[in-house]
């Protein structure tokens, strides 16, 4: 399950390794989310990490990130790279938890810009007690108003992120504007990441001969076994698994709701909501490797 984690010695300081080694030795961390949270850790002396861990008994280096907040980079100074978050504006909406995780994790590394078709507001779905307060706070922020996808110049961005958007099957999957942006990213080999139903957005990138931009790639996304549980399964406009296979790419999936991420060249795809954090973790590493 951890084949998509990469630790690079030229990215993280020595003391960061000390904290990881200590926690693996004494805490025996096995959970992928614990490892992912360490990617936004600040540099500390090994003794500080040991003392803090003994005091709390938890992952001590994690910094809580809120909408629009920033974290100073320990790798190098300078402006953050820019990342475009493309979301659906359809009534089927955007997964609240996937967007929350994407924005929180991404804001630690990127300057983020959200865009939707027509610049329409995002309709969040699957809002629960755990994420409702964050969503309410986010919607009050000035940067919560999306830019028009049709006006986006892909050359201005270093990375592209599409969270889990059930609505993507209705609007993004047929978006000529997104197809233009994806073509630019693919040509320049810029990092891209699509998660869950957001993978359906990649289906728009076909030419006049119906040749798909991602032909020959390996991807994941919602499996048929996950989709068949939906009451509207028979009327879904696109089945990602079928589209990928029919378009000359390779599709893989784990069991329903399992964490599963595929990295192929500059494209990262995640199977579902639960794959959001590790997928973004890979996107961050791809951007780091381009510096």
Automatic annotation (TrEMBL):
Q: GO CC annotations?
A: early endosome; extracellular region
Keyword annotations for this protein?
Answer: Endosome, Secreted, Signal
User: Which GO MF terms are attached to this record?
Assistant: glyoxalase III activity
Give the primary localization class: other
Q: Which SUPFAM superfamilies match?
A: Class I glutamine amidotransferase-like (SSF52317)
Q: Where's it found, cell-wise?
A: Early endosome; Secreted
Q: Which residues cross the membrane?
A: none
Please, one GO biological process term?
A: methylglyoxal catabolic process to D-lactate via S-lactoyl-glutathione
Q: Which family does it belong to?
A: Belongs to the peptidase C56 family.
Q: What does this protein do?
A: Component of the FERRY complex (Five-subunit Endosomal Rab5 and RNA/ribosome intermediary). The FERRY complex directly interacts with mRNAs and RAB5A, and functions as a RAB5A effector involved in the localization and the distribution of specific mRNAs most likely by mediating their endosomal transport. The complex recruits mRNAs and ribosomes to early endosomes through direct mRNA-interaction.
| Name of protein | Glutamine amidotransferase-like class 1 domain-containing protein 1
């Amino acid at each position: 399950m951890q084949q998509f984690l990469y630790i690079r010695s030229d990215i993280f300081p020595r003391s960061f390794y000390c904290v990881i080694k200590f926690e693996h030795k004494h805490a025996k961390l096995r959970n992928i989310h614990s490892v992912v949270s360490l990617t936004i850790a600040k540099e500390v002396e090994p003794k500080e990490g040991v003392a803090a861990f003994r005091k709390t008994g938890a992952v001590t280096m994690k910094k809580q990130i809120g909408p629009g907040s920033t974290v100073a980079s320990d790798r190098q100074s300078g402006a953050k790279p820019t990342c475009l978050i493309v979301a659906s504006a359809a009534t089927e909406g955007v997964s609240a938890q996937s967007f929350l995780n994407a924005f929180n994790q991404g804001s630690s590394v990127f300057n983020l810009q959200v865009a939707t078709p027509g610049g329409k507001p995002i309709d969040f779905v699957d809002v629960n007690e755990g994420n409702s307060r964050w969503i309410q706070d986010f919607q009050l922020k000035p940067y919560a108003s999306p830019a028009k996808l049709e006006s986006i110049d892909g050359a201005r961005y270093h990375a592209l992120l599409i969270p889990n958007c059930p609505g993507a099957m209705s609007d993004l999957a047929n978006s000529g504007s997104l197809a233009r942006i994806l073509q630019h990213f693919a040509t320049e080999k810029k990092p891209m990441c699509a998660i869950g139903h957001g993978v359906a957005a990649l289906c728009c990138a076909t030419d006049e001969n119906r040749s798909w931009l991602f032909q020959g790639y390996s991807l994941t996304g919602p499996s048929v076994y996950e989709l068949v549980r939906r009451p509207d399964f028979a009327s879904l406009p696109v089945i990602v698994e079928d589209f990928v296979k029919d378009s000359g790419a390779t599709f893989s999936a784990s069991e329903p709701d399992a964490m599963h991420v595929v990295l192929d060249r500059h494209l990262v795809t995640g199977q579902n909501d639960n794959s959001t954090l590790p997928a973004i973790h890979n996107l961050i590493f791809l951007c780091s490797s381009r510096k």
